[in-house]
## 1
Amino acid sequence: MMRDVPPVIGHRGAAALAPENTLAGFRAAARLGVRMVEFDAKLSADGVPLLMHDDTLDRTTNGRGPVREAPWAALADLDAGGWFGPDFAGERIPTLTQALDTCCELGLAANVEIKPCPGRAAETATAVAETIRQVWPGDRTPPLVSSFSMDALEVARETAPWAPRGVLRETPATDWDVLSRSLEPATVHLNWRAVTATVVAALSARSLPVLVYTVNDAGTARRLFGMGVGGVFTDDPDAVMPVVPEGA
Ligand code: G3P
Ligand code: MG
């Protein structure tokens, strides 16, 4: 496995236990012994990198409308936790800076998924790279930077060549050799439903460990580890940690 990527990665923090992409989720993951969290980064209208999965505020905050049209000042006070449960009311949207600082405080490794709003791939990747450079201590393993946007990964390679890259896809790509040459990824992140032992072996032969999302039950996790995947993204770490192979 790639150095420092553990077999269990908290998805959007620990999305089954706390509101996704919030610092409460990071704390929940850390309490369970998770060593790395994945989270989604995009930009406010005025270019502040923040944590949010959707392009709109509606599902995970008490705001409305596209994230890309809202300045950070309008986002900072939104409630990003009340939708999940009353215990989390008042939880805020974290900036990427806050998220990275919190990972460091909690001893968590980070997988920053660049999740640009439409048309903002390059500027989002640039801002993410710059924020990591400013915030992340030089003596810690840099965050794994992943994206479905190959444009974003290309910019990340240019602006933060020291950060390992993860290529995200719903299904396995056809020409990994071409992709490997252009992006020099450290890992490949696939939807577990599209993964077979053959896929894992083909990528392993190219020195590309496979991480799979989103795996929330022990049986599926056991089967995937048996195929040789290097790690699983999970909303529910307690469900999958018992089936991590010995020594992984
Ligand atoms: O990075 C793995 C996974 O998070 C990709 O899908 O939609 O949950 O961001 P999504
Ligand atoms: Mg994600």
Note: The chain is about 30% helix and 15% strand.
## 2
Amino acid sequence: MTRSLVIGAGGVGSVAVHKMAMCPDVFGDILLASRRVAKCDEIAQSVAKRFGVKIETAELDADVTQNTVDLIARFNPDLVVNLALPYQDLAIMDACLETGVDYLDTANYEPRDEAKFEYHWQWAYHERFVERGIMALLGSGFDPGVTNVFTAYIAKHYVEDMHTLDILDCNGGDHGQHFATNFNPEINIREVTAPARHWEAGGWVETPALSHRETFDFPSVGARNMYLMYHEELESLTKHFPALERARFWMTFGDAYLTHLEVLQNVGMTAIEPVMYEGREIIPLQFLKAVLPDPGDLGKTTTGKTCIGNIVSGQHASQPRTVYLYNVCDHEACFAEVGSQAVSYTTGVPAMIGATLMSNGTWRKPGVFNLEQLDPDPFMELLTKHGLPWQVTELSAPLDF
Ligand code: NDP
């Protein structure tokens, strides 16, 4: 059985640890470590109460590689599951290299001072991971993560010659707050306010943030406005499926969210450059995070469903074909099962599944990998088994926008 060190006691870390505790045949001892041990203890109590499983906790500042090296030396895990923030990715990968332990995360490394959403820093570790005989699985959440697996699954079984890919991310939930983000506010707002970018005819096309809107009728949710955005899986998917002529990512936002965001942006509250405040430097977006609701607390009040999936058009057996592969997830059902809303759930469950496939050897090989580079079938099977069932439907025509 695998000994796992999970880093990050936020919404996603909480779901992952609950789901790992539900799989005692795969996951043995679990240590949850984060910047504030009190948050780890809260999660450990919930896991013990719900599933009767005891997990260890520890305080860890994972920005400092040596701290993680020391904790690994003490706990001796087989796998480090990094569910802290993207800023910590490289420091934790360095700790894994030093100690020879496998690594998994759900978001690409980000420098603090510039929103980039690029994989090259982490891909650059490939040779060193191969030489050390360890594996890194990058982006094992929903998007990125499941959307990468969905693309590989469609390519394998439905559309052998893929021409266009559209990833559609809809959160049809209502949390009852004026303004809140459903995962880490700092990362979420950096993502939403960045210029949109999509892949077309062999290159990136950049457009202003939130400037291209379409309406789409989402299964189990209904018609919602969605906006063209850049999202990190587009980089790895266009690299690993170079025949794609166009690849886009869309996310739904309600009008109230966008109005609040516009005001916050106009007054400078979403900036990531430091400003002086009472004699010390603060980053406006980090201050904003401090006053916004904690995404981990939204579960109690959130109702409705998420629907995230891929629409792929192309040729199969010399015939044109368009398929839509998606998952629908219910906020209240997630809360009842593990005490979190669906956005944390849809990220934490794939993290646990990626960890399972590394642990049992199905996906394990030395090097640094995105999910679409591995066989999608076992992952798809486990999605259904662990609470994220999916459906495929044939569409009569490609998207007309
Ligand atoms: P949260 O902000 O809720 O949780 C992050 C946790 O990491 C917090 O407990 C935080 O501590 C801890 N942390 C921050 N810095 C450090 C550090 N230096 N050392 C140790 N712990 C630290 O975020 P989420 O749970 O919403 O998201 C977790 C990750 O998942 C993020 O990287 C996010 O981008 C990614 N994500 C991926 C998705 C996908 O589909 N692929 C979707 C949603 C999220 P503290 O509590 O003290 O702040």
Note: The chain has two domains: 2-138, 146-340+388-395.
